[in-house]
Amino acid sequence: MCNVLMTVRIRDIIAGIDRESPFDLAENWDNVGLLVGSPEHEVRKILLGLDPTTTLVDEAIARGADTIITHHPVIFKPLPRIDTSTPEGSLLQKALTHQIAIIACHTNLDSSKNGVSDILASELGLTEIAPLIPTTPGNEAGTGIGRVGCYAEPIAIREFVDRALNVLGLPVLQVAGPLPEMVGKVAVCGGSGSDLAETAYASGADIYLTAEVKHNIARWAEERDFCIIDGSHYGTEQPAIRLLAEKLSTIAAQSSWKIEILQTVDEKSPFVWLHQNSLTQE
């Protein structure tokens, strides 16, 4: 008897993601799910990336992907027009022309159990990881924004910095407030987590690692003798692409889907480091 391969469609991918990272965990200002394409679009090869860019769409075309899943939404605010002479319009035109669907898995992946901040905390070697701000009652335990965790034994600040640089893929770290000599408890929030600094401080963390720290929050950290590290938006969220690949691979295996899941190789941080007296970039 011949095995009949199941046709996988976008609606199946959406339903699978919803089981792992429920879309109802997304913030009410967010835009997640299928943003370009049809729910009936057949899926054979998926490309994962952090940001929906023309570079990512070009990579999808080159690698034969018919679906793109990004963390950040390709359409965030309502579009008053689609001008194909702009990068945004060109991206949408190219995706539609090549029949590439685009899905966003944003703040639902931030808040879900085993989400963005979980992998960041785990790769730093933290244990006893719990949400920094749990979701409202009624949601699954372990969901919420940010995470806080501990080391079994406190580690020296030099070791923590080395770990952070390695996980974030950065040559340097931007720090506000004094570095503690030893690190036992750490709060993290992948992406823009400046507004959670006071919560991180109240949690008893020795260090808060996040991104896009505002100037006034950096001053606040100085006054509180509290260490905040800005690990960049890309650095703190890039590990989430590997996490998303693992989640999708698990869903595919459980569902017996014959699809290929790729992680971007072309995507890089939009920022580079310029060194004094040199135009050498890192």
Automatic annotation (TrEMBL):
Record key words, sorted: Metal-binding
SUPFAM superfamilies for this protein: NIF3 (NGG1p interacting factor 3)-like
GO CC terms of this entry? cytoplasm
**Pfam families found in the cross-reference section:** DUF34_NIF3
The record's GO molecular-function terms, alphabetically, read: metal ion binding
Residues annotated to bind a divalent metal cation: H71, H72, D110, H233, E237
Subunit and partners: Homohexamer.
- What family does the database annotate? Belongs to the GTP cyclohydrolase I type 2/NIF3 family.
> In its UniProt entry, what is this protein called?
GTP cyclohydrolase 1 type 2 homolog
Q: Which organism is it from?
A: Desulfopila aestuarii DSM 18488
